[in-house]
Give the backbone structure.
Amino acid sequence: MGRPGDRPSVITARGLRKSFEVKGGATVEAVRGIDLEVPAGQAFGFLGPNGAGKSSTMRMIACVSPRTSGELRILGRDPAVDGVAIRARLGVVPQQDNLDEELSVRENLFVYGRYFGLPRARCWQRADELLEFAQLTEKSGAKVENLSGGMKRRLTIARSLMNEPEVLLLDEPTTGLDPQARHVLWDRLFRLKQQGVTLILTTHYMDEAEQLCDRLVVMDGGVLVAEGSPAELIAGYSTREVLELRFVPGEQTAAEPLVAGLVERVETLPDRLLLYTPDGDRTLAEVTERGVRPVSALVRRSTLEDVFLHLTGRSLVD
Ligand SMILES: Nc1ncnc2c1ncn2[C@@H]1O[C@H](COP(=O)(O)OP(=O)(O)OP(=O)(O)O)[C@@H](O)[C@H]1O
């Protein structure tokens, strides 16, 4: 899988696998042989539900978890051999913030810079640049424990940029944030991409994938089930429009036979029927003619959520 462009690849994987031995001698196959090609300068996303294998893949790319088998090259090097050298060129934003709550915002950046061996004066200078970038200059002297969730995320991102990484890995960057905080964060990530940083992120939010990613892979059960740009995936796996018919939970099954044959594909959810159609308004008129009486009806454009439902038979967010 993959579409290598003329830009060099920052990540190449072939048959990449990760298994974990668990209690009782059983093996969990978290990643079951995936192929990846991520060109420099892209925002590349792993989209999938909980347990799909996204974090396990990210941890192998971050050189903190060895692969079980397969090939993996990051920035042209093998993490099993050159992990330390690769890590120096990566920025990592983990799923859970692990900031030092007792230190001030600015000190958190300083300490991280020192960890990467930057001279003291350069650490303070870089910290101030990144505070501005993260829109946290006014919070420079504040204790981390007094920051909002969105500010903490922005600080974690600022910290991951102390070593001027070429590639930034973000594991569910906006999980738990309110919509406004998510938009501020997306804006900062856009800026980084404009500056040439390759972004690799995991998410189970389809809007995040659509907003941020040039390309993405849909992951489920440790394998890749589709790859493309958000627009390509929607064009390839869904129709342009969806007619959503809402029912009192349970009553949607009675309507199923009435809509049969009207459209190419119908998905049944606990309180809804989704009818995939090139023309939602026309289909709505047809189902009304057939005597279907939903609580409400909505025509909307297809999203990545529909693609995911089509590919896996399940919703992205359980
Ligand atoms: N250290 C571990 N030991 C045993 N099993 C693990 C370990 N890490 C992950 N797994 C298992 O591997 C599978 C994939 O997990 P992973 O965390 O990679 O998925 P994910 O897509 O990132 O999910 P989430 O969105 O919940 O983070 C799951 O079944 C998980 O329970």
